[in-house]
Every structure is written in structure tokens, then in C-alpha cells.
Design brief:
By secondary structure, this protein is an alpha/beta fold. The chain has 10 helices and 8 strands. β7, α8 (206-228) and β8 (233-235) form a beta-alpha-beta unit.
Length: 289
């Protein structure tokens, strides 16, 4: 009997475009996960997969928008505040975009309104700002959960849901493989957090330092989690040279991370072979007994 798979897509902004390679690799292997978890951009990619989109469909959709500056500008215009009152709600916040409006303008139609309409169970993380804890959503309204998970501080406004103020899910759980560790035989984690690199940013701006410090914090959380439990497979595409909002660099990023597909396929083959070997050994042991 073939093992079941669960996959956790990590947060990382534009670096999460590399998740598309992972979805394509699983498609090519004929693997359909029975459980998906995601943080931030990983929640959005996970929602696409959970809705039944193939890796190629996600890839083509992302490239059709992000590969054209005019298309991105048009959708950003569509996501602008509807009224002056909305723009000035709680004071003028020039730097904070409404993430719910942004997602509405950019999400593919294939992603439904609710979790119940998904074809694969999905868990979406967010950070409960005043509750000081992780929030996990797996039912009800899907779009507000995705918006909350992707609400990067200082870029997007927090999202209010169920009376809670929610921000980026990657803050508390950058790669949420632990949320599905009991839901499948083999768990895959995909880490696209990256880390500050000196090559391109020897004199980082204050914005670079803010995002870089967040990367270091998230990597610390991941390292601590890995000491407690590990996914069966953990892949880390080479995404560190890209900034969190480098979505327009989709072509370069996708080209430079394409090797993750073969790496994942090798890892899947290794884990499945080891699992089958252990099962055969166990059956022989029972017969001998």
C-alpha cells in the first residue's frame, strides 16, 4: 500500500514562488497530499493546491500576472481603498495596504470562498497579536484566513477575525509541518524563509534590516522546532538573494530554484524506499517469530 503524504508550505513573501516547483514535482510523481498546511505565502500556495490546481496551472497563473508590470499595476489599482473614509480609517496609514483587498485582486478564481469547498484539508496559520499565540484556521471563511496569514507587519494592515487582531502566520510558525505530523505517513516541509546575504546588500537599508531581522528570528524558530520534531523531508530552495516583495522577479527566481524539483524527487524516493525496506524487514521478522 502506497504511503500518504502531507506537505507544509513555509512563509517567505516572494521567495515562496519556489513552492510552485514543489507542487509541480509532486504532480509529476503522481502524489496528491492528504493534508496541507501553510504560513503566509505558503498558505496561499497551499490553498491553490488544496483547491485542485496543478503546479502548472499555478505557475502559468502567477507568471501571467507577475511577469507583466502593467497587469500588477492594474490589479493594485483595483485594490485601492474604496472611499476616503476607508483610506483614513484609524488614521492615515500610507505604508499599510489592505491585504484582504490585495488578495481579492490577485487570487485565482479557482480558490473558493470557504475551507469546506477545498478538495484537500488545509490548515492556515496566523499570529494572534494581542493573544500572543498561534492561530490556526481550517474551517469557515478561507479568504480572510489567507489574508491574516499573509499580513506582513509594516506592509499590510492586520486582519480582524473572530474578534482577534491577526498578523503574518510566519511570525509564530514559519514552516508549520507540526500541524499535520499525524495526518499522513510522510510529511514534507518546504522552507523558503532564506537569510540575509552580504553579496547584494553590504550596506542594508533600514527596511532590509527590518526584514532581515525577521528572517533571522524565523530561522531561529525553525531550528528550535527541528530539535523537537522533524518532517520526513525538509527542502530549502536557494532563495536568500531575493527580498520579501520581489514578486516581479518571478522569472529569475523560478529559473534559479528549478533544481529543487529533482532534489525533492530524490528525497521522496529515498524516504519511500526506506519505508518499504522497513516494512519488508518487519514482515520477515514476524514470519521468523
Amino acid at each position: 500500500m502506497s504511503p500518504t503524504f502531507g506537505i507544509a508550505f513555509g512563509g517567505g513573501g516572494a521567495r515562496g514562488l519556489a513552492h510552485i516547483h514543489v507542487i509541480e514535482a509532486l504532480d509529476e510523481l503522481g502524489i496528491k497530499p492528504v493534508a496541507i498546511a501553510g504560513s503566509s505565502i505558503g498558505a496561499i500556495m497551499g490553498a491553490g493546491m488544496a483547491a485542485g490546481m496543478t503546479g502548472k496551472e499555478i505557475h502559468d497563473y502567477a507568471r501571467s500576472i507577475l511577469g507583466r508590470r502593467a497587469e500588477v499595476a492594474s490589479r493594485m489599482w483595483r485594490a485601492r481603498p474604496g472611499t476616503i473614509a476607508e483610506a483614513m480609517q484609524n488614521g492615515i496609514r500610507v505604508s499599510q495596504f489592505n491585504v484582504e483587498r490585495i488578495l481579492k485582486a490577485f487570487l485565482p478564481e479557482a480558490i473558493p470562498e470557504t475551507f469546506a469547498e477545498l478538495k484537500i484539508p488545509l490548515k492556515v496559520t496566523a499570529t494572534d497579536y494581542f493573544g500572543h499565540k498561534l492561530a490556526v484556521f481550517d474551517d469557515g471563511d478561507l479568504h480572510s484566513a489567507l489574508a491574516a496569514s499573509a499580513a506582513i507587519p509594516a506592509v499590510f494592515r492586520p486582519v480582524t477575525r473572530d474578534g482577534r487582531l491577526l498578523i503574518d502566520g510566519g511570525i509564530y510558525n514559519p514552516v508549520p509541518f507540526d500541524l499535520i505530523e499525524n495526518d499522513a505517513d510522510i510529511i514534507i516541509g518546504v522552507d523558503v524563509v532564506g537569510a540575509p546575504e552580504e553579496a547584494d546588500r553590504k550596506h542594508p537599508t533600514s527596511v532590509d534590516l527590518m526584514f532581515g531581522a525577521t528572517q533571522l528570528m524565523m530561522q531561529s524558530i525553525i531550528a528550535n522546532k527541528l530539535k523537537q520534531c522533524r518532517p520526513d523531508i525538509l527542502v530549502r530552495p536557494s532563495v536568500s538573494k531575493y527580498r520579501v516583495l520581489d514578486f516581479l522577479k518571478i522569472d529569475a527566481l523560478m529559473n534559479e530554484t528549478a533544481d529543487i524539483k529533482d532534489q525533492l524527487k530524490r528525497e521522496v524516493a529515498r524516504v519511500v524506499e526506506a519505508r518499504n525496506g522497513a516494512a519488508i524487514k518487519g514482515r520477515r521478522g514476524k514470519k521468523a517469530g
